[in-house]
Amino acid sequence: MNFFNLLEKLKRNDSSLILYCLLDRVPIIVYGDNQEEIDNFLIDLSDLIHFRKELVFYTDFISEIEYNELIQNEHIDYNSQRIHIRCPSNVALKALNCFDQYNSWLIGFEISRGYDKIIQFINSIKKKIGCFLAISIFNDLIEVKLEGINYKFLDFDLEHEILQKISEDTEQSVIKMKRVLSEKIKSENFDDDLIKLLLDFESEKEILKRNILKKEIQNFYSGSKRAFFIFSRLNLLNNINMNTKIGSKTLLETIDYANASIERIISFIEKEWGEDFSNLIENGKKVNALDSMQSLWG
């Protein structure tokens, strides 16, 4: 079960919630009764946030000391690549016993099906991680739930737009490819089965969707980083007693990215680089309900 098969089975808000949590470094717990399926799905999720460096627990590091050494550059060098952690299901319990912080972790668990067992499992995770996204996979049945906060308070406009663009751009690409081939073969007396085979792009759709999604995520990341550079300079000016702010419209025009609200960009910057620049926006204020939960997963 890969991410794009999952998208077709979920409501749009659930798909958007997964993207939201990936971008804002919320811990994601994937559980079910098929270890291979769980671990492959973790790999798919990890691949989507390609602008971060993946570390695998119990392969790249095994202790909290090693982990802290690997991520120490995040605290001193804003230009260093941020890190996310993929934790396969066979070492998930070791991870829960070794660490206290799970910012940007993707963790798999293999558990047997059963309502009581799942409730017990979720409650045990809550004791360790206050806020996380839970994705359950049992025999092609998918459920997504954000634990620790009501997702209805979150702004999914960016994620909705990305998902819409994936759908529209993929269909447009397929239509163009079919049109080109149809022009080439329309004067030939080909067998109907051969024509059907030539015009079948179902297997290529996943590649197209993945490429479009990565492009849109990269555009958001790049726009946010440009905003980060501007905010950093404004913050420096404020530190030398020059009280200066910037308007949302001016900032979005300057970074040449308008597919996300300024509040969404500020939220992402805070999770990615640990800086809160909400005070630098004219008439700005925090609107992200997850901000208050940062200490629970950060």
**Estimated structural class:** alpha/beta
Strand order of the largest sheet: 2-3-4-1-5-6
What number of structural domains do the residues give? 2
Beta-strand portion reads: 5-15%
Helix percent reads: 55-70%
The succession of helices and strands, N to C, reads: HHEHEHHEHEHEEHHHHHH
Detailed description of the structure:
This protein is an alpha/beta fold. It has two domains: 3-153, 3-Layer(aba) Sandwich (Rossmann fold); 157-289, no CATH class. It is 55% helix and 11% strand. The chain is built from 13 helices and six strands. Strands 2-3-4-1-5-6 form a six-stranded mixed sheet, with helices on both faces. A hairpin with a 2-residue loop joins β5 (132-138) and β6. α10 (202-239) packs across α11 (248-255) and α10 (202-239) packs across α12. The longest helix has 38 residues, at 202-239. It is globular. Mean pLDDT is 90; it is low at 286-298.
Per-chain topology:
Elements: H1 3-9, H2 12-23, E1 28-32, H3 35-48, E2 53-56, H4 64-71, H5 73-76, E3 83-87, H6 92-98, E4 105-110, H7 115-128, E5 132-138, E6 141-147, H8 157-185, H9 192-198, H10 202-239, H11 248-255, H12 262-273, H13 294-297
Parallel strand pairs: 1-4, 1-5, 2-3, 3-4
Antiparallel strand pairs: 5-6
